[in-house]
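Throughout our pipeline, every protein is held as a single compact record rather than as scattered files. The record that follows is passed on verbatim for readers who wish to inspect the format:
___
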Amino acid sequence: MATVWVALAATAFCAVFATVLAMARAIEVRHRAGGAADLAVLAAADHALEGEPTACGLARRVAAAQHTRVVRCAVSGEFAEVSAEAGAGPYAVRVRSRAGPAMGGAAAWP
């Protein structure tokens, strides 16, 4: 009877451990996507006046250096908006970020 209880306890422990590992992976991917989106949009906004192809190309290079990819990039005047994706399968996460100059203490997206 003790063998059955030990087997059940080991199975429960493994299930909890697998759940914790999955949560940790999801959190790690989310943070990586967020950081990459923020860095990429800052790069794009810094070069926004050079045109969308140049700004978005730079954003893609910055995202690739972070092991993520840009799925959407838009530039309007001095403002830029980037969506970056990290992970794969059930852990794929997409994060959107915007940047531009401050206007009266608050940034306004046109």
About this structure: The longest strand covers residues 69-76.
